[in-house]
Amino acid sequence: MAVPSELAQHIESYVDTSRSPTQQATSLDAVISLVKNHLITIETLVREMEIYLTTTDNVIRARGTLLIAELLMNLVSKPLDNVTMHSLIGFFTDRLADWRALRGALVGCLALLRRKSNNGTVTASDAKAVAESYLRNIQVQSLGQHDRKLCYELLECLIERYPNEVASLGENLIYGICEAVDGEKDPYCLLRAFHIIEALVQLFPDPSGPLASYCGDISENLGLYFPIHFTHPNGEEADVKRDDLSRALMLAFASTPLFEPFTVPLFLEKLSSPLPLAKVDSLKYLSYCAPNYGADRMAKHAGAIWISLKNAISTSMLESAKSFTSQSLNGLGFEENEITTEAFMLLKTVLMQNSDLLSSLIMDDEDISTTFNNMTSYGSYSDIPLQGKQRLHVVGRILYITTKTNIACCNRFFESFFPRLMDILEISKRNSSGGCFLDENYSLANKFHFGAVYLCVELLSAYRDLIMESRVTATDSIHAKEACCCMLQRFSLSLINAFCSTLRTGCNKVSDDVDIYFRVKGLQILATFPEDLLPISGSIFENILRTFMSIILVDFNHILLWKLALRALVHIGTFIDTCSRSEKASSFMAIVVEKILSLVPFDESTLPFSLKLEAIFEIGTSRQSHMLKIIRGLEESVFASLSDVYVHGNLRSVDMAIQLLECFSNKIFPWIHGTGDLEEVLLRFAINVWNHVKSWTASDVQVQEKGLLDATMMATKLAVGSCSEESQNIIIQKAYSVLSSNTSLIVKESTTTSIPVHPEGLQLTRQTDKFSHKDECILLLFASIIIAARPKTHIPNVREILHLFIASFLKGYVSSAQALGSMINKLGLKSNGTEISSDCALEEAIYIIFNTKPWNSYNNSVSGQCEATSNGIEIGLSDLCVGYVNNRLLQVNAIVGLAWIGKGLLLRGHEKVKDVTMILLQCLLSDGSTGASKLKQSLLEKTCEQDLHPSVMKSAADAFHILMSDSDDCLNQKFHAIIRPLYKQRFFSTVMPILLSLVVKSDSSFSRYMLYRASALVILDAPLIVVVSEAKKITPILLEGLSVLSEDIVDKEKLYALLLVLSGILTDKNGQEAIMENAHIIINRLTDLISYPHKMLVRETAIQCLVPMSKLPYTMIYPMRTQVLQAISKALDDPRRAVRQEAVRCRQAWASIASRSPHF
Amino acid sequence: MVYEFFNANPVVYKKKERQVRGAPSDTDESAVEPIDHLEVFDHLRNIKDPEHHYSLEELRVISEDAIEVEDHCSFVRVTFTPTVNSCGMALVIALCLRMKLMRSLPSRYKVDIRVAPGSHSDEAIVNKQVNDKERVAASQEQPLILDLIDRCLAPSYD
Q1: Nearest CA distance, B88 vs chain A (angstrom)
Q2: How far apart are the C-alpha atoms of A1111 and A1131, rounded to whole Å?
Q3: Which residue numbers delimit the MIP18 family-like domain (chain B) (predicted)?
């Protein structure tokens, strides 16, 4: 094969160290491609390179060797025959002795040794030769970091691929490896070194083999690194983490039991060091190594381990700073850290390994005995000194962990400790006498020692958890014949009685919270023990339930106890569910569920009604059947009290009815929604409402209770909203039948809903204008169903209903307007021909609302200024809004209605919303002639010149808030509104330019004022990112909006929202330009807001906004400095702390920009 | 010249767990939260020691208990304890405390700063100087002192 001429060049270029690395890489690539494409063989190449490989120039020789090695590294998949392989590996093996050209030799050996078997591999004898040469020639620790890394990789590769050949080197190899890894410091190399040791140990499994004599050395070497302490900065060596290293070291330590005599003492020694890291690592390593070293070897250390563990646990328990709360409680409220967790893991491991030895150590432990002996000297938790509490906690946790380990330990610890505890509690005595009935006289004040109760509860809960775990994993099942079972059965009755009587009213007032917590917990554990292991008779179980119930009913002033008892009941209720026993289930139903339900209708018990409802709901959550029962009961109560109000006129039931309805709205319906399969309950509730409506309207009693009606509407809405379409159809049919039977509401076949309108401005009195109470009730409940209906739900006779709602919202029923908005939002675009004739498409509905002129204006007054005919003129909705009829109230109603309809359109992205916006804008511009629209002008021709009343303009401005804000009442996801994404952005970017230009054009100050208000309301609900992107244009108007909104206390929430938008602009990079331009006005506004009296958050945020203002260019803000500092110094005396704190910070920022005088 | 510390190796204490205040009611806008000793302590705790980079809280120069506040009388008294009896920085610390309180409390307040009885050799002198408004005002004219005070009062971000 001819040698290509360029080969020599490439070789020369690679070998020449004066060339750049890229050039060398290119020439390497060129050589590789030559060999790959079979233009030259490797043998030819080697022959060609003879001079480079044999020269006495170290540098060139090294480069030459490296070229061959790199080439082989890149040709892993190229098949090579045995002869070539043999000669190549022979060459590299020899070269290992050449320390000046070592890199190439290492890379070459690695490349050849790593080859896959189908492409030709190094033979076993050659591999052995490599290993021998390696051990003979290489002094790993004298090499640089990269070469060391290669050395370790080569060793690892040899051990993994040729274990037998390498193992035959025996002690030589072990010695070599020990020498190689001795003193290594680089993290990556260390990681490899740990792996090598782990692999090395696998090579010599024989405990009396060559490894035995080196174990001491190896573990001494490894021990130097323990615990791994990483000094590398975070950025560097990111590929090797402390955890990786630590784990590798742990695996190396655990690789053979032969290390045990050296490592375990080391770990124990480090465990006693004050460094937390050393403690955690020692515990971790011990836990991991113990099973690998085996029980026999570990037994020697059991005593030492136990002592160290005990010390570690005791010293790591810190006093918790938190006050006692039932939620966060673990043991006695001492905080546990990683050391404790690891210590308990280790305790569990060693206990499993050497059960007998460890448990006797624990049982004979002096500290534990002392704790037991001291127990009787303290009664309540609060009597125990802090140190005693800590010791008690340690013992409790140790007992819990050890008892829970397995059933053998459980038996042993129960036998040893439980009788002692019972002795202390003086419970065993009364049991031996055979008396197991409720002993009311068991006086506990001085016998129920907290320590004993606590440990007893820990033991019991460990036992119960052990049982539950074994049932879940279905491993070794626990029989009732186990010693601990028998013991518990013997004591259980007396114990339950003791707990019950301590929890009885009277004892609780004097007890500490912690005492109570453990008594309740103990009783709860006993009540929820699996039936087959601890049979509790029905009467005892009922006694437990009665005890808890009496707490619920009587001890409601003791909040913690009450909550704990409730939680215990819920727990017991849930447990009955899993291990269903009909007897217990029925007694729970009778004693708890029915009892508490029976209390609802009567307000005799002293338990406050809200707590009663909370308890009822919580108990219901324990089980679906309980909840169903409870819902039925509550439903009865709701309708009974509603009827009481509406039929009998009994106003005393109003509060109760409202609370019950709120319980349904806030708790029960969301719960049902969460379970997802109880739709019939919702349907029943909604239908029930309509069944009762008939009877309410039949009565003569007139009750005006807005709150009650609102609560009823909300509950109905939520119930309907969670129903499926089928159920909704049923409900709507039912409701419609009630509605249509009420003739006063729906005028059949009428296109003109007559509302007497008086153009002259005679004020309609509110009372006569409204519906009667009965009609109102039906109308509003119907509206709430329409609001909650799904888009596909069929609404009968849409046109008629549209007319009804139009007529009613003009009378001031906002819910009607909301219902109209919802209908418009959800109606289908076009009705199919097959549908019933009463179906109405969206376009038609819009036409009905806007274009028909259903309002007749009766000219029934004296001389009207209008030239209306005696038949009256017809006025459309838009005309009403812009004030054709000089009736302020009607106008406001029309505008509010229009806003809700507009919202429905806006959400679904219908273009008609533009018309709505234009009408609203006209209302805002009404008193100026320049901005007036065509419509206005045409109206002016017909009617007299009239200015809109301020209240009308204000409602037009507020309509923008309705359009932009999210409502809880309707048109949201809960009530299935069709919501187009980004509708707020879209509306904001269409309407803002118009508002801005109108502000510029407007020459009436009041009109401008209202435009500011409208703009502010649009801005505060728009997504911040859009506002910021328009910051330059928006900021001036936003600032005007701030001053407009700060005038009325009603607007304080809106003011706050707007201020948050400003702070968003302030902190955003894109807003900086706008801020610079308006700096003076911003500072003026903010300093005004510092003294805003109605909302603390406004003051706080205003001050926070001033801080970044101080970073603006010095010349710009210097003139404002005094003004700001004066305003802030007033804020230093603000009644609220948060404001004062911000003021100090802000003052620091502003004071530091120039002068240093203490005041200004 | 090597700077000589008055106390080259002070004992640094762990910051004490803060007393937790109940969350303020957001609903009641008219609720008044009077200035109390915890709030004043919050103003003072992060002042740096003039010699070391530790806060006065860490060195236990001031503590929550050593601050008396009577909001209705507009009066506050801070009693501080220098780390060593002969600490030459006591006056600077006292000035820092006074300046910080002047900047953080409403102007209606009368501030009284004093060295804990028996904790400093020049107790009377320090007490006299730091509560003499003429002398305090004069110290403000000294750029060196002012620089030092500003460094101690600079906000820390830990």
Answers
A1: 23
A2: 20
A3: 39-110
Q: Closest residue of B to A1052, CA-based?
A: B29
Give this complex's ipTM.
Answer: 0.92
CA angle A927–A932–A934, rounded 5-degree value: 140
Quick check: B31 and A1137 CB within 8 A? no
A857 close to A872: Cβ distance less than 8 angstroms:
yes
- Whether residue B31 and residue A321 make contact (CB cut-off 8 A), yes or no, is no
> Nearest-CA distance from B9 to chain A in Å?
23
What does the pLDDT average to over A426-432? 57
**pLDDT band at A853, cuts 50/70/90?**
low
Judge whether A547 and A594 are in contact, CB under 8 Å: no
Q: Which residues of A touch B150 (CB under 8 A)?
A: 1156
Residues A501 and A1047: their CA atoms lie apart, in Å, by: 62
Query: Which residues does chain A have within 8 Å of residue B24's beta carbon, measured at their own beta carbons?
Result: 1136-1138
Closest by Cα among A436, A457, A562 to A505: A562
Backbone angles phi, psi at A1154, to 5 degrees: -145, -90
| Distances in whole angstroms, Cα of residue A126 to Cα of each of A81, A157, A177 | 14, 14, 20
The answer to whether the Cβ–Cβ distance between A1129 and B104 falls below 8 Å is no
Question: What is the rounded average pLDDT for all residues in chain A?
Answer: 80
Question: A1159 to chain B: which residues are within 8 Å by CB?
Answer: 102, 107
Query: A702: burial class by Cβ within 10 Å (0-12, 13-18, 19+)?
Result: exposed
One-letter amino acid for residue A603 of the chain: D
Beta strands in A915-1044 (DSSP E): none
Any idea how long chain A is? 1160
Query: Residue A689 contacts by C-beta under 8 Å, 6 or more apart in sequence?
Result: A712, A716, A781
Sign of CA dihedral A1072, A1076, A1082, A1084: positive
* Chain B residue with minimum CA distance to A1131: B106
> If contacts are CB pairs under 8 Å, which of residues 285-324 in chain A contact chain B?
321
* A1151·B103 Cβ contact <8 A: yes
Please determine, for residue A45, whether its predicted confidence score (pLDDT) is greater than 60.
yes
- What span, in angstroms and rounded, lies between the C-alpha atoms of A751 and A732? 23
- Provide the b/e sequence for A448-468 (b: ≥16 CB within 10 Å): bbbbbbbbbbbbbbbbbebbe
- Residues in A 1138-1157 with any Cβ partner in B closer than 8 A: 1138, 1140-1141, 1144-1145, 1147-1148, 1151, 1156-1157
Angle between helices A679-698 and A725-741 (to 10 degrees): 0
Distance (Å) of CA B79 to CA A368, A586, B113, B115, B127: 47, 68, 6, 5, 10
Q: Which residue on chain A is closest to B71 by alpha carbon?
A: A1133
Q: How close, in Å, is residue B8 to chain A by CA atoms? A: 27
Q: How confident is the model at residue A1155 (pLDDT cuts 50, 70, 90)?
A: low
Query: What is the percent of chain A where pLDDT is above 90?
Result: 7
Q: What is the pLDDT of residue A970?
A: 84
Distances (CA, A) of A458 to A403, A443, A937: 9, 23, 85
Top pLDDT among A202 and A513 is at: A202
Cβ of A1158 within 8 Å of Cβ of B99? The answer is: yes
Token pair 């037991």 is found at A372
Residue boundaries of the structural domains of chain A: 1-138, 750-919+942-953, 1078-1160
Structure tokens at A477: 């099942």
Instruction: Pick B105's closest partner by Cβ from A1094, A1132, A1148.
Output: A1132
Tell me the torsion sign for CA atoms A840, A843, A845, A847. Answer: negative
CB A331 within 8 A of CB A401: no
3-state secondary structure of B155: coil
Pairwise CA distance, residues B111 & A110, whole Å: 79
